[in-house]
Amino acid sequence: MTPTDDRATRRSELLRLGFADVDRAQADLAALGDVAGPLLAIMGRTADPDAAVAGLVRLADVVPDRTAFLGAVADDEGTAMRLLSVLGASAALTDHLAAHPEQWRDLTDPTLGSTRPAARHLRDRLLTAVGADAASERPVSAIPDAEAVDALRVEYRRLLLRIAARDLAHDLGVDDAAAELADLAAGTLEAALAIARARVGEPADGVRLAVIAMGKCGGHELNYVSDVDVIFLHEPADGANEAEAAATAAKLASNLIRICSDHTAEGTVWEVDAALRPEGKAGALSRTLAGHRGYYERWAEPWEFQALLKARPAAGDAALGRDFVEMVRPMVWSVADRPGFVDAARAMRRRVVDHIPAKQLDHEIKLGPGGLRDVEFAVQLLQLVHGRADERIRPAATLSALAELIRAGYVGREDGEALHRAYAFLRQLEHRIQLYRLRRTHLMPEDERSLRRLGRSLGFLRQPDVQLLAAWEHHRREVSRLHQKLFYRPLLTAVAQISGDEARLSSEAAIARMAALGYDDPRAALRHLEALTAGVTRTAAIQRALLPALLQWFAEGADPDAGLFGFRRLSEALGSTPWYLSTLRDEGQVAERLAHLLATSRYCTDLLEREPAGVRLLGGDLAPLSADAMTEEMLATAGRQAGTDKAIRAIRAVRRRELLRTAAGDVLGITDVADVGFALTRLTDATLESALQIAGRSVRAARGLEQAPTRIAIVAMGRYGGFELSYGSDADVLFVHDPPEGASGADKELAASYAKAVVEEVRRSLAAPGDDPALLVDADLRPEGRQGALVRTLESYTSYYAKWSKVWEAQALLRADAVVGDPGLRDRFTALIDPLRYPASGLSADDVREVRRIKARVDDERLPRGADPHLHLKLGRGGLADIEWTVQLLQLRHGAELPALRTPRTLPALEAASEAGLLSRADADVLIGAWRLVSRVRNAVTLARGRGGDQLPTDPRERRAVAGIVGYPLDRADEFVNDYLRTTRRARAVVDRVFWE
């Protein structure tokens, strides 16, 4: 073989072994001499062969005897495997070895691969390193402070090096590695406390201090690099002054924190985080046992008890630490009895996710969707719900707790094992990422070299980056799937016979879980589940597959009981319909949307119960249809019916479906509040137009008329005219008709009689009780009110407005919009009223005073007795009436000169007023924001309660539902109310300046 062939073979061999920079690797291997050959295969099994050989060359250059060092490594395969594994996986530990080359001998220990050191051994090593007596009950460092602090860091890294070598070379296992890291952290806290005692001096003898490990350290599942969460606890020593003891405890605690976290020439250890203490960072650094008890009994939030699930004594006074754990244990295991416990836990999880920067979300191993925290969250919830009565499932470590949950039957074996595999993989991935630089990170790297190194460290040797990403994605999906399934699916086993390896909950355990999920009547909920899943039919089988997801979505809604009950009623109505269950099963969006609607909106639930086929709508576009499209469909459907009543019912059925479309889009946050008002208005237009035509045909047929003796138009008024209808609004209208020019007296009488009969038929048929929501058509704004004629001719309107019109009628006509009926008549009516509502001379001072007088009277007389003026949506301070009257006064005063103000709609009028300088941009924005919020809330009240209302609900569940529809998380209903009050208060200030001057 020629030298060229030999070099090519050598290069090919290095590439096969995983070297990336072959030229550099060959130079490093040459520098090692004869030992390179025996070590080459071991290098090929490391995470980064290039880093392993480069690190070995670097270490050989700094050890006292290079030849002996390399010979020892080459002659002992175990030493070589441990050392090269570390050099190939951790740049930080390579740097440490280069700075302390004598520590390589720690890796020659033949027991390193088989024996885990006891926690006491690690503690004693660290205490000895800082010059403290490990046998003392209160160890105190006896060497100079700076020397002790550096010695702590060096010894900590020495012991960390041994753990990393065991982990990398001997497949330590993620749970064993995490437990050993937690023991190392506890020993480090003990050694740091010994140094702190030396710093504080004699006063330290007057206090007993315990350090309680929390979080991953407390749970014996620590990462390579992590903040160590702690709580400090103290008691005065016998005869010591309490105040002095408290001050000393604070000094000891603060010094311990600095000793661990300060940077020195030997680096740092990790941050000690005491933020989980009572009152967080605002609270005292250390408290007595009684002080902790008082806080936890009176003030602590549910999440604080969830955190205490992992509390354990880690350093300091062990007896005091045990007393603390015994004290909080009953509180931890009773927290699930608190109302809203699961909601509070979910809120905490949601806040964590919300704080992840968007660009990091898809790279988060710990906190992102399908990450470590999802597993921990699910396991802890199951522990806290069922651990009250079952002590078997109380281990602090996640994997140990999961094993007990499986053994006790709360999690199915197959699901539990899959979750175990996913969690172990994610933890090991997190460990390997942190080990490289010994930095606290949970982000998956993006560069190819890092992905390659990580993949190889986890055993993926062929296309390691591709295999790694595929495995990560698989386990993320598994976690997301199982997170839902393991909490909700076992509920079905309490009520249905399910074959296979499933969790088996007793009835009482199922009731406890349902109660924790927020069901007010868990026994009834289980009866609904039994009704839905009983039997061996295909329908029951599909329901059993659907319900775990649906139960989670119901539980995330404002009213889980209503969600489940509504689903049962729908299923009973549609269960035999071929498309229903298959649609829910195959189109996940439909099922999720349906669950959200049922658990949030009684209005939507009522519509769905009347229109079960409306479920199909949820799979498509929920954007409202146009008025023309709806009118065309209504008339076509009505035209196929025999008889007027059936034709009107067909029109109302279309209206019911379109109400559902709009309401669903509103609840799901798809349709904007202004678009909701527009959609409801156009739906009313289509309904009235269709009903008017059907009623006209009916009256003509009954009277034997071949054609209509008069033209009829319907003028929208009030919120209907302003395109601002809400779900509970009546349709305020004026009816106008116009006989042919030159009609005789008899013809006019016939026209009047015909017009009255038609409009009465429209009102009667649309308001009649039935399966469809009624539409009340209100003509009380007509001339002379209820005493006046229901329908007048255009000529009569002209005469009335010329003689009797008041300023309030002109104001009412600002929102008149002639939209239904004969187009020509509509145009003529609009031409009639424009000079009235936009007077050329503006308003006189007397008219302005009259508008204000009427507004004051409305404020004084129409607010319901007992209503809170701050929370009344229509008549309250800064509510809809305040804003709309302000806009209308500007329109009356300036509409003649400013065409842009001539609109029945509030928001465009506000924009026009701002552009014309009648309102500052800031004031206009305040009023626009308030109008949108109050209108949104008013709609949400109807959607949540199923009936209209102008008062913000006081019932907590209804208020949560309203907050959720408006866009707030359900646990932030108080924040929603505060925002509402602040918004309306600012709007009222603008109204005071602009309307009342």
UniProtKB/TrEMBL annotation:
InterPro entries: GlnE, GlnE_rpt_dom, NT_sf, PII_UdlTrfase/GS_AdlTrfase
Glutamate-ammonia ligase adenylyltransferase repeated domain span: 82-325, 592-830
EC number assigned by the record: 2.7.7.89, 2.7.7.42
Cofactor dependency: Mg(2+)
ATP-binding is among the record's keywords: yes
GO MF term (any one): nucleotidyltransferase activity
UniProtKB keywords: ATP-binding, Magnesium, Multifunctional enzyme, Nucleotide-binding, Nucleotidyltransferase, Transferase
Catalytic activity: [glutamine synthetase]-L-tyrosine + ATP = [glutamine synthetase]-O(4)-(5'-adenylyl)-L-tyrosine + diphosphate; [glutamine synthetase]-O(4)-(5'-adenylyl)-L-tyrosine + phosphate = [glutamine synthetase]-L-tyrosine + ADP
Pfam families: GlnD_UR_UTase (PF08335), GlnE (PF03710)
Membrane spanning stretches: none
UniProt region (Adenylyl removase), positions on chain: 1-491
UniProt domain PII-uridylyltransferase/Glutamine-synthetase adenylyltransferase: residue ranges: 348-487, 870-994
Name of the protein described by the UniProt record: Bifunctional glutamine synthetase adenylyltransferase/adenylyl-removing enzyme
Upper lineage: Bacteria, Bacillati, Actinomycetota, Actinomycetes, Propionibacteriales
Gene it is expressed from: glnE
